[in-house]
Structure formats: structure tokens, C-alpha cells
Amino acid sequence: MRKTVIDFLLLDNKQLNKDNFLLKLRSPIPVPELFPGQFINVLIKDASEIFLRRPFSILDVDFNKQIISILVKILGRGSKKLTEAKEGETINAIVPLGKSFSLPEKSDRILLIGGGSGVAPMLFLSKICGLAPSNVSVLIGARSISDHIDISAYQAYGQFHFTTEDGTLGEKGFVTNHPVFTEKLENYNKIYTCGPNQMMKAIGKVAIEKGIFCEVSLENMMACGFGVCLCCVEDTKTGHKCVCTDGPVFNVNDLKW
Amino acid sequence: MVNLGIKIHELDFKNPVLTASGTCGFGEEIADFIDLSLLGGIVVKGTTLKHREGNTYPRMAETPSGMLNAVGLQNKGADNFIFNIYPRIKDLDTHIIVNVNGSTIEDYVALTERLNELDKIPAIELNISCPNVKEGGMAFGISCRSAEAVVKAVRKVYDKTLIVKLSPNVTNIAEIAKAVEGQGADSVSLINTLLGMAVNAETRKPVLSTITGGLSGPAIKPIALRMVWQVYNAVKIPVIGMGGIMNATDALEFMISGASAIQVGTAIFIDPTIPVQIIDGISAYMERHKIQSVNDLIGSLQC
Known about the structure:
By secondary structure, chain A is mainly beta. Chain A has four helices and 15 strands. The model of chain A has no long low-confidence stretch (mean pLDDT 96).
């Protein structure tokens, strides 16, 4: 799929909770085919201290209306500046970037685990995976109930489970403490995950032990996003791989985890 | 119609805008975004005789108006370039220039000999200025004697256009330029990145795995301009300027200061269409100023 620099129109910038914003970007040209795990690299305008683009994974795509939705979590100056953009502004971004999660087979029973802004590609995957909702479980972890975003638009696509570190929503603890993960993992033949590295490593370790297929989406610091700067490399079993072009999605067996 | 053609040694370029080594892969990686045949030339990723894995992650830090990198010449080596990459890019309608690196003079010579046999590689850029490798690299470019030695050895085995990429991490870059000119360099390109560093105050740790790295981007442009101007006034061979060029105005500033051609580097990370925007912008400037040939701009600084 051809990568393109596009001037999007910011249609909507909605604060979902303290740190998370939902941005809807309308493209003046047909949106390229996009899959969960792929990302968009956004230029942050009028911010002298911010030089490089900021990558965000795709939350949703409306091909008819040419709209790409991204979840922006404030992590630093770049993401903060982007959340301050006003509707009607132009947002320059490069899309589509990276390799997506492998799409499940009809017979699969999948577990999607999202943490922090890593929930975005998990929701997107639940929506387009084409499986019966009974074969899709989505486990989402956050610090507290106020850090969770409203997932009601995706509820029909799977069975949702939540954890919070303070116990204010769902099970208390991390996603790896939830019974879906600790007791019922054998119910699934594929695990897909996106979130903090520590979380994905804990999940990946168990997946390797139990021999369950597991794909993780990494977010190493990158300069370009399309494979020329060679800055975002992950040290894999077959050498340094660019997270932006060889990933961001990797099979956990290929990593040195 | 304005004339954008320039000459480096005996090599004619359709325009003075090249992409810098390490910022556009082998060209193919940015072919989605631009028509590569519009470029004056493509300087491909720094190549070494043998495969290199490069430095460990993290290799990059964003800094005010720029970035540090410590990639460390990750590349798949000469065989991969010659047998896998070259057949795919050799017929592009633009000059393909290979950036040549080595840990020893013998490495530089051996790689150059192999590249000399490739018909569609009309020039090499001898990189004696990479700040991110432990052996060789910049070490050759920071003294006149070592710079002379490597250029002399490579010149003996290379009969096409030899460009030498200079390090800004020196006291007097004009002296180094004169030294390599004296050994038969056909052109000098400058500047490579400036040695820099980033620190995380919270963790009291360096941001880069290598502690220090190479600074690029608009932050270094005034230094690069100054050095291009100094070198232009010191040597007779053409100068290729680079360092923080983000748009046509930046490119013009370099040419006015003495650059016969320019390279766009870090800007490609931000927007890979910038090199073509720069070509268009130079044309528009020349029309506006009624300048027929881009050669009339080179070194036209009025002091």
C-alpha cells in the first residue's frame, strides 16, 4: 500500500478522560487500506521544541467518509500539543505505516489485551476480525476507572473484561492477574497485545511457556516512521529490525524476550 | 525555464538537490512519496565491506530543532549492496552515490575497488566523519594526516568522482578540506553530524546507548553554513553543503555561501517530499530573481 503524506482536516477532538483524546481526521483523498496495528505519523505544528512527528496507532477507519480515528494519550509535549488542536485545523500526517497484526482465521478463539493507549489497535481488531463475539475476548487494563475509555461502541464485537490497579473497575491488579489470563488462557489459541512493554513482556513470557501464538505491538522511539533512519530498532533473534517497517507488530517468538 | 544543472568534477547533475546518506535508505524507501528521477542524486546509506548490526537501542533523541542519532552504520555490507540492491536501483534516472565507510584504510580501499566496478555508480562519498563508530569513521576525518592517508589510498583505486565527507568536529575544517583536495579528492561534502549528547535528569542516565551521538537538523544549520563558506574560500574543488536544510530558502543560503550542490538529510524524516519541494522552490526563486543558471548563485554571497 502506497505511503502518502496527507493534509487531514481535524473534524473532531474529544476529550475522553483526563489524559485520553479521540481525534477524527478526514482525508481529502480516499483513505488507503488500513489494518489494526498500523500507525499514522503526525506532524505537530507550531511547537518549536517538537521536531519529529509523533506516531499513533489507528483506532478506527471509516472508508466511506474518509475518516481515520486515533486515540491520543498525553505522554509528553508532542501528544499534549496535538490534543490542543482545534476542530477545522489541518493535521499533516503520513499513512499507512507499519505492518498490522495478522488477521485471525475463522476457527480462532482470540484474546486481545490492551493497556494504556494500546487499547486502540485492540478495539480496531475486535471490530474487523470477523469472528463471532463469543470467540473474541478483550481484556483492558488501566491504573484507575478514570483512565479507562468508554468502549461501548465496540461492546458488540467481543466479551470485554477490565482491570484497574486500584480496583475501581473490574478486577484489581494488572491484566496478567485477571482470571481470563490466569485461569482460562487455554480457551484461546491466539493472543494479540499492545501496551506498555512490561505488560507485553509478562504476557509474552506466558504465551511462550504455554505455546500460544502471540503477537505484540512495540513502540520504540522513532524518527522517520518509514524505515530510513534506523533509529527504532528492536534487537530480535534475527538481528536489529526496524519497529516502524518490520513491525510494529512482532510475533513474540521472534523477540529476545 | 531556468537552468538547474550543476557539475561536480566531471559529473553533470540535473539539479543541485541530493538526498543525504542515511536518510533515504537506498532511495526505494521513499519512492512511494516522490519520483526519484526528479532528484539530482541519491547518496545511499553508509556501506561497509562487511555487515554491521549498528549500536544498541536507544539510538535517537529528539533535541531542540533537531535530533541526535547513534545508529552506528547499521548496514548489510558490500555483497548485499552489490548483488541485491544495486540491480534494483541502477537504472533510476538519477545519480546513485555510495557512502563508503571503513574501520581501516584497507577496508575503505577494498570496498572502493568493488564499487569502482559498478557502471551505474558514478561517484562515491568517502565518509571519514561518522561520529558513531568506535573504530575508523570520524577518527580519519579529524586530522589532516589521517584524512590525507585514507584519501590518497582510495584515490589510487578509484577513477570516478571522489567526494569526501568532512566532519565538523574539528578546529579548522578548511585545513582538512585542503588536505583532502591535495590528495586528489574531486569534491568535499559537509557537514556530517556534530558530536552531541542528551541526558535524562530524572534517571541521571544518558538518553543514547552510546552516551554521545551525532546532532542534525536545523539546530546545526548556522554552523554548517559557516563551514561551507570557510571551505568554499579555501579550496578549488566543488563543495556539497548540508546541515539542517529544511526548505528551498535554506538550500539557497548554502549555495550562496559556496555550495555547488546540497544534500537534504534529517528533513526527509519529517517529510520525504521536501527534496522535491526544494527543487521547485529553487526554480521559483530563480525566476523571481531572473537568474538563468543556478551556477550563478554558487558563492554569490555579497560581503
